[in-house]
């Protein structure tokens, strides 16, 4: 079973401005979970389309109830592939993003299409789709529900981040975004502390279930991805055509 989600977003900026902001959107106050970004491959096709692949490293804090089933290294970070095609002739930008770590536990695939809004040509419309699945027996439904809820929250932050970067590009960064960010961080900290207290109380009254998943080991046998190493660049570059053309 796969959870499906679709929505349409609207940015009150031109398509050209949004395309520039897309490459400049990290860092921003709403993207502290994004740790690194590396361009693995980039090329211009004969049809004058810009084709890119990036490797992103993000924090991946699992909920408290899930952490007890996971090795520590699996519960903290995630590696994300982001493919994109910018078509200046048709004024579209299409992106496909999916996780390559912890995919057996939960897979999240997102497809976005950025195009000129038909009702206002100075605005940009984002058509977003996502597919969330899990093959973890006995917990797949709970994991999918968690993944869907987190994805919806992430979409809201992504749009706010876009608006922040676009405003900054135009020299008009709203100060209230920083206040919102501080309030949100305080709320998240309070929630994390509450969950920690519940977790400690639960551990004091019952034994931890003896069920541990085997950690995923990336290609090459290393549990750490050397982002700038030659082997990973060759790996993604050699498989680039398969991913970007077959999956879009």
Summarize the structure.
This is PRELI domain containing 1a. By secondary structure, this protein is an alpha+beta fold. Helix content is 37%, strand content 28%.
Describe what you observe in this structure.
- With 248 residues, the protein is an alpha+beta fold.
- 37% of the residues lie in helices and 28% in strands.
- It has a seven-stranded antiparallel sheet, sandwiched between helices.
- Strand 4 and strand 5 form a beta hairpin.
- Helix 1 (15-24) packs across helix 3.
- The two termini are 22 Å apart.
- Residues 207-232 have low confidence and may be disordered.
Task: Give the topology, please.
Elements: E1 2-11, H1 15-24, E2 34-44, E3 50-59, H2 64-67, E4 77-87, E5 92-99, E6 107-116, E7 124-133, H3 140-169, H4 176-205, H5 230-238, H6 240-247
Antiparallel strand pairs: 1-7, 2-3, 3-4, 4-5, 5-6, 6-7
Helix pairs in contact: 1-3
